[in-house]
Design a protein that fits this description.
About 75% of the residues lie in helices and about 0% in strands. It is built from 13 helices and no strands. It is globular and about 50 Å long.
């Protein structure tokens, strides 16, 4: 009974009684933040390439637009990780998004195709993914750099264990903070970035992994709706 009461107190959770591995582990918020920044920056190489091309046509600087897009995408991913991922689901969810984003980045960079609902529908109907396409060294190089290496580092990083109450409170607080950042950036991005996205709709479709996941959801909705 005394041991049970001791374990349930905050004194038992102090640094004196927490194992060394637990003290040296990373906070889930830091893991989510780094993964969000990686997905928003490196995995959107095709988006930055297209943004530079569009900016050259409009004779504008792509840097400020890229910074705002990175902040909006990273904050959105961070909010999703904070709300939907528990400690056990955090690493599998991030790894899955790494792989999906790497595949989409390869298709947009090498096949020069925007991943929309039409492309996904044709892929399901015609099955164009041959064995030769999976033997491409560019595909495996992209997967290795954008998905495999960060996933290995992710799984080798111990994540700190939090009590359910603390985890829920911190997750809600971080998600709200991320939403505030998104709203602030949307206000700062209006109207020039909004006009750019409306004039160049392929930019919205190339936001990785949001554009491909939205297209996949549209195809799934069409197929599941009678």
């Amino acid at each position: 009974m005394k041991l049970k009461l001791f374990r349930s107190t905050e004194f038992a959770e102090s640094s004196l009684f927490v194992p060394f591995k637990q003290r040296m582990s990373a906070h889930p918020a830091w893991v989510s933040l780094l993964a969000s920044l990686w997905l928003a920056t490196a995995c959107n190489a095709a988006l930055w390439q297209e943004l530079v091309r569009v900016s050259e046509l409009n004779q504008t600087s792509p840097l400020w637009s890229a910074v705002r897009l990175v902040v909006i995408m990273a904050a959105s991913l961070f909010a999703v990780f904070s709300i939907l991922s528990s400690r056990r689901l955090l690493k599998p969810l991030i790894t899955l998004l790494f792989i999906v984003a790497a595949l989409c980045c390869h298709l947009m960079l090498n096949a020069h195709q925007v991943i929309d609902s039409g492309l996904i529908t044709r892929a399901f109907n015609k099955n164009p993914l041959s064995v030769a396409s999976f033997m491409s060294w560019q595909l495996w190089a992209t997967l290795f750099i954008l998905a495999f290496v960060p996933s290995i580092l992710l799984w080798r990083t111990p994540v700190r264990r939090l009590s359910p109450v603390h985890y829920l409170m911190q997750s809600c607080g971080l998600a709200v903070a991320a939403c505030v950042v998104i709203l602030v950036m949307l206000v700062l991005s209006s109207p020039d970035l909004s006009e750019l996205v409306r004039a160049q709709p392929q930019l919205r479709q190339m936001t990785n992994p949001f554009g491909p996941l939205q297209a996949l959801a549209e195809v799934a909705k069409t197929r599941l709706t009678p």
